[in-house]
From TrEMBL:
It comes from Chryseobacterium hagamense. The gene is ytxJ. Gene3D superfamilies: Glutaredoxin. It holds the Pfam family BrxC. It comes from the Bacteria. SUPFAM superfamilies: Thioredoxin-like (SSF52833). Coiled coil: none annotated. This is Thioredoxin family protein.
């Protein structure tokens, strides 16, 4: 990225996808994720790729969990690409849609959720 692009907001580089994320891109992916919550805690991060706040929260959360032992299996949902899946999550788990949002699931039920600046690794252990 050139100096002027950095100053004036030129082409945006694709964000680096962290290796701990498992993507949810279909109803089958979602079903498998929720089924796996009967064996261990999972968390779904719902992210709007066009929202600056969502990008900032995602980046901060990734930094926070990068060096930790994960107490939950982490899933990532791109809201813009998969909005119907986000709606299904809200409906099936009874959690009002937010963006960004972290939903922690155990035994097929949402046990914790947070949105915006309230998202932190603390949600994974409570």
């Amino acid at each position: 990225m050139s100096f002027f692009d950095k100053i004036f907001g030129g082409k945006e580089e694709a964000p680096e996808q962290k290796t701990f994320w498992k993507k949810i891109e279909s109803e089958e992916d979602l079903q498998k994720a929720i089924e796996s919550s009967s064996d261990h805690k999972i968390a779904i991060f719902k992210h709007s790729t066009s929202c600056f706040i969502s990008k900032t929260v995602l980046r901060n959360f990734e930094k926070e969990v990068a060096g930790l032992e994960h107490e939950a299996e982490l899933y990532y949902l791109d809201l813009l690409a998969h909005r119907p899946l986000s709606n299904k999550i809200a409906e099936d788990l009874g959690v009002t849609h937010q963006s960004p949002q972290l939903i922690v699931i155990e035994n097929g039920k949402a046990v914790n959720n947070a949105s915006h600046q309230s998202i932190s690794a603390d949600q994974l252990s409570s």
